[in-house]
User: Fold this.
Amino acid sequence: MVGDVEDPEAITAFAKRVVAAHPALNVLINNAGIMRREDQTRTRDLRDAEETIVTNLFGPIRLINALIDHLAARQNAVIVNVSSGLAFVPLSGTPTYNATKAAIHSYTVSLREQLKGKVEVIELAPPAVRTELTPGQSTRDEYMPLNAFIDEAMALFGRSRRPRRSWWSA
Ligand SMILES: NC(=O)c1ccc[n+]([C@@H]2O[C@H](COP(=O)([O-])OP(=O)(O)OC[C@H]3O[C@@H](n4cnc5c(N)ncnc54)[C@H](OP(=O)(O)O)[C@@H]3O)[C@@H](O)[C@H]2O)c1
Assistant:
């Protein structure tokens, strides 16, 4: 099933369709994202910034909202939010992207606390990986090969013990 996370009504309709077709659904991975270069040194059309916020930040917030009642009622439910290393060390050429990923990191910390005992909440913060998130990125030697990233991420998901607390929590 295809869904568009930029469109609030499409998200609501998608959530209803997917739950009706797959009532046992107990995992949500917020992976969809876009990354655009931006020049902050002069006045510009802010469309790229706005679309980045809608897709990368409102997308997960809206999709979680549409599915939370269903997920909270399931056994062993999990929400995975994909942030980025750039949430912590920004790349200056992609300021709004970095900011959305920092926001997703923060949102995930709160979500984990609120859903404690109901839904497990995991943050996946990938390094630079060879995909076409930005043009040409899939051929850069210094980026992590996609298969190696998938193997490592899946191995981490398979661990029975994951860090549950943020470093500043008591
Ligand atoms: N690759 C990296 O170096 C890296 C590093 C850190 C974090 N990440 C994060 O990892 C996630 C996946 O990125 P990727 O590297 O795999 O890039 P990608 O190959 O460009 O994949 C992005 C995915 O998001 C989907 N998407 C974009 N806009 C959407 C929308 N409005 N509605 C629904 N789906 C939409 C795309 O679907 P379509 O193909 O249909 O457009 C595509 O499947 C992103 O959140 C990204 O920020 C990637």
About this structure: Residues 3-6, 31-35, 55, 82, 84, 126, 128-129, 131-133 surround NAP (CB under 6 Å). The beta strands are 27-30, 78-82, 120-124. The mean pLDDT is 94.
